[in-house]
Amino acid sequence: MQVLHKMSDSGNSKPRVMIEARNASKLLPDGVASLKKAFVNLDLNICQGDRIALFSVNSFESRVLLDCLSGVDKPDQGDILHYGSVSWPLGSNQAFHRRLSGYMNARFAAEVYSQPGRIEKDLRLIQDLIGADDFTFHQPLGTWNAPMRKWLELAVSLAFEFDATLVGRISNWDHRALHPASVRMRELFEQRIDGRTLLVAAPGQNRLALDYCDEGLVILNGRLVYRGDPEVCLLMVKEETQRLRYERRQRVNARISRLVADSNTDECNSDDPDLDDVQEAESEPEVLPGDRPTPVSPLAAAPDLWPRSV
Q1: pTM of the model
Q2: How far is CA 5 from the centre of its chain?
Q3: Which domain does 130 fall in, by range?
Q4: Which tens digit of pLDDT belongs to each residue from 72-125?
Q5: For residues 19 and 46, what is the distance between their CA atoms, to the nearest angstrom?
Q6: DSSP strand E in 130-241: where?
Q7: Which helix H or strand E contains 25, and what residues bound it?
Q8: Judging by DSSP bridges, how do beta strands 35-47 and 17-29 pair with one another?
Q9: What's the CATH code of the domain at 197?
Q10: Which of 42, 55, 286, 295 fits a 20 to 30 Å CA distance from 211?
Q11: Bridge-partner residues for 26, per DSSP?
Q12: Radius of gyration of the chain (CA)
């Protein structure tokens, strides 16, 4: 399919490019001796203010592309350039140490990403977002329950400002929920993306992608095949998924038919040595234990050979 690009209506003014991919490719191991294409020969410009959702049949394609666009991973060939600050994919596994407290884990991130003079303010923001008291916030992360650790990961991701915000697979957060904690997260999320660039991995969170993105990219078999309306992107992915399921079902049915045909052929094959043994055993008379065949005299068998009296 030909790649379709959405044209800009801004006249001669060109928006500032935030992320640029130049002939970038990424291959991943698939089994023992094969490779799977995440994306191949990708040329892409993502500008300031763009809100783009990444659609793919296999979630690994959009996830790997997002990792490379964020700088967490590198492409095998080509270049991915940043022209501003880019976040790591929100919701991805972060290097939090379970033996350190929530405060120490959050402070480590704040020392790297906070603006000058804002470290303590960002730490208070993180604590307020997760709703932890001072005692809990200073307890080792390994003593926290799983949902609260997820809240900490999301809060740390949203606490800092970036020119481009990338969203991976966010679990334990429904952006439409009316729970106070979810509302606080949603308000901060919308504040962080206001006027900035947003990229969302759509697989597994289509509602989030459709609610916040006005443009979509479709990656099929490692290639960019469409850029445009997110609703069209979602429809293309659904149709491709159905097509792949039908082909897989056809392959399975064909394999089953071959196995059944081979089984029937084996049953009818007279050259089978096991089958010959069975037939030979059935042709022999059954001899019960203790039964002995009565010996037959050669003379009894041939009356002409009996001696004649003179």
Answers
A1: 0.74
A2: 26
A3: 103-157
A4: 899 999 999 999 999 999 877 667 888 999 999 999 999 988 988 899 999 999
A5: 5
A6: 164-167, 197-201, 215-220, 223-228
A7: strand 17-29
A8: antiparallel
A9: 3.40.50.300
A10: 42
A11: 39
A12: 36
